[in-house]
Structure formats: structure tokens, C-alpha cells
Specification:
about 20% strand; 3 helices; about 30% helix; about 130 residues; single chain; two-stranded antiparallel ribbon; 3-stranded antiparallel β-sheet
């Protein structure tokens, strides 16, 4: 399960259009997310959509913000990086204690990366980015 998520996702929301969200412009229904192996961060979103539950798409024709996210979350949302970091630590601990046979994951561009290396990569880049 986890391995599939590491390779990323790219899809259009089923039922994309005004019946799903009457304000969002069509490019906002395309969802892309994955891991940036230069930083180890989970990345995703676009300027056209809201990447997390706390975001809002504008709805005012008068203000000119209809269909435009007030807070687009393209990039690496801090709460998702934090959850990923904790999960990677947990997966590393499961391997170290013998509960899991998996030492790491296979990325598209980086080959196999151990949970320990991924944890270090996130930690090294977290304060810098």
C-alpha cells in the first residue's frame, strides 16, 4: 500500500465540474501529488486547486476571485510533511524491531531509499526550505 503512494498520484476528480464544485475552475479538478526526492517532502497541488481541507475557493464575481483558491496549496504543505516524517520514522522503527520486512521504498527517480535515509533527508531539508 505505502509503496504505491510513494510513486505518486495523478488523476482528475471523478465527476469534475459544477455538480462537484460550482466555483472551482476545471484545471483545479486535476490532482497531482508525490515525493520530491531532492528534499524528501510530499508535494502536490496546483495554483488552481485547494490542497487541504482548510482552503477556500473564491466565489465572488464582483471581487474577481470566483474559481480562484484564496490559499492555493501547491508545493509542500507543512502538515503533510510533518505527517510523512512521522510515518517514515514509524516505518523505520517497524523494520528495526522486525515487525516489517521492508527497509524502504522504491522511488521513480531515486531507486530504493531506506526509511532511515528518507527520514534524514526530510530532517536536513525541513528548516532550509
Amino acid at each position: 500500500w505505502y509503496q504505491r503512494r510513494v510513486r505518486g498520484i495523478h488523476f482528475e476528480e471523478p465527476g469534475a465540474g459544477p455538480r462537484l464544485d460550482e466555483h472551482l475552475k476545471h484545471p483545479g479538478f486535476t490532482i497531482t501529488a508525490g515525493v520530491d526526492w531532492e528534499t524528501g517532502f510530499v508535494r502536490g497541488g496546483s495554483p488552481h486547486n485547494c490542497g487541504t481541507w482548510m482552503d477556500k475557493v473564491g466565489s465572488s464575481e464582483v471581487a474577481g476571485n470566483r474559481g480562484i483558491p484564496a490559499t492555493p496549496r501547491d508545493g509542500a504543505a507543512i502538515e503533510l510533511v510533518a505527517i510523512c516524517y512521522q510515518t517514515v520514522q514509524w516505518m523505520k522503527d517497524l523494520h528495526v524491531t522486525g515487525v516489517s520486512k521492508y527497509e524502504g521504498v522504491q522511488g521513480y527517480t531515486c531507486g530504493i531509499i531506506s526509511y532511515s535515509s528518507w527520514e534524514s533527508l526530510i530532517r536536513q531539508n525541513f528548516e532550509q526550505k
